[in-house]
Amino acid sequence: MERETCSYISPDGERCKEKDLGTGFCFWHDRTIDKSGMELSERLENYAAAGGLMQGIVLKRANLTNINLVRSGSSTGYDMRYADLYRADMRGAHLFNINLEGASLMKAKLNDANLHCANLHDTNLLGVKLSGARLDNVKIGSHVQQEAIAVSADKKRERDKATDHYEQSEEIYRNLRKAAESDGLLNLAGHCAHRELTMRRKQFAKFSKERIVSKFVDLFCGYGERPMNVISFSIMLIMFCAVLFFLFGVQSSNGMIQLSFDKSLSENLSNFFSTVYFSVVTFTTLGYGDIQPVGISRLVATVEAFVGSFALALYVVVFVKKTTR
What we know:
Layout: H1 41-49, H2 145-155, H3 159-182, H4 186-201, H5 209-221, H6 227-248, E1 250-252, E2 255-257, H7 265-283, E3 291-293, H8 296-324
Antiparallel strand pairs: 1-2, 1-3
Helix pairs in contact: 2-3, 3-4, 6-7, 6-8
């Protein structure tokens, strides 16, 4: 008697056309079959080439070394979304442009694998081995799977669960950063380094001193990965102090430079641009001496000069780090 087809239906509504094994599922989608150590590389290649449904396949602990899942002649790779590849041995695998969104690669061996252009958005990457793997143009999205779980738990005030998954997320980003650095992918390494430290910050208690300081460092320089943050902060500080100098007044050889409603708009604008100039000179600690702070402006100038010298030094450090990683 002819068996029924596999009862697996993908999230897109596509049904697997393979024959079931008496359990309602085919070999590829049946979770009850222990595939540990099975050498399935050639068999899976043939199944994929024949148009088999790749979504949701279960290959836990399977031997898939050197498998070639490159979809020749197509602009899109094989769709292996939601696949379970827990502890699968995929060393040396060719996975160009493959879609692994929502899949589990937990503790899988991907050493020396080609993951060029792979979609790893919302993929479980905890403990994955990536030594020697090619990660050019991989898409990891705005978050990893554990991070999404942590954010959801945080919203539900399940703090222990959130902290545990933030810690897992930190480990994943650290692993990706090391692999990217080894592969010379500086942009990916920088992104993962920033996310790694962001996950570490979120493990601290809300409103704790450690979390506030960490957040400030993130805003100020992106944990050393975003030089533009330093520039943006510097510009905002210069303009803010210029406004304060304009309100409280600074002294020049031609008299006070200060907002005055008795003066015309053009004169006030001229005075404001003079305070912007003085703010830049103070921030960079040049100190030409043609304009001098008086009263409260002296305190503003002191603070700006101190922060400015620190910001300039930090920018050099961040810039050198980004260009010499």
